[in-house]
Amino acid sequence: MDAIEETLLSDLETKTTTEGYIDLMLASRVIGSDPLYEKALQGLIASEPKPTLEEAQLIGVDAYYAVMSRSRFKPRDHPCTSCHQTRYLMCNNCY
Predict the structure, then answer these.
(1) pLDDT (tens digit, 9 = 90+) per residue, 19-54?
(2) Would you say residue 78 lies in a domain?
(3) What contacts 71, CB < 8 A, 6 or more positions away?
(4) How many domains does the chain have?
């Protein structure tokens, strides 16, 4: 069983799509792996498109909130016209 688990996890870790990260997150919960959960969470934060309603229900409110709230703090290509920030800070007009 250990060899099968290692093979499955290895396959899941190579998928870099939203669906792949969701699968990895669900697998990390089954085996109780915090590092895999964090890897999946960081992947979801960076991924596009964001999880659908059905996917959000699978990963749970806490994970979905983390994905959506951290996604808005990505670096900008250009300064905000209201607050003139370019990195990670957002004013009410930006949001």
Answers:
(1) 999 999 998 888 888 888 989 998 998 888 989 989
(2) no
(3) 45, 50
(4) 1
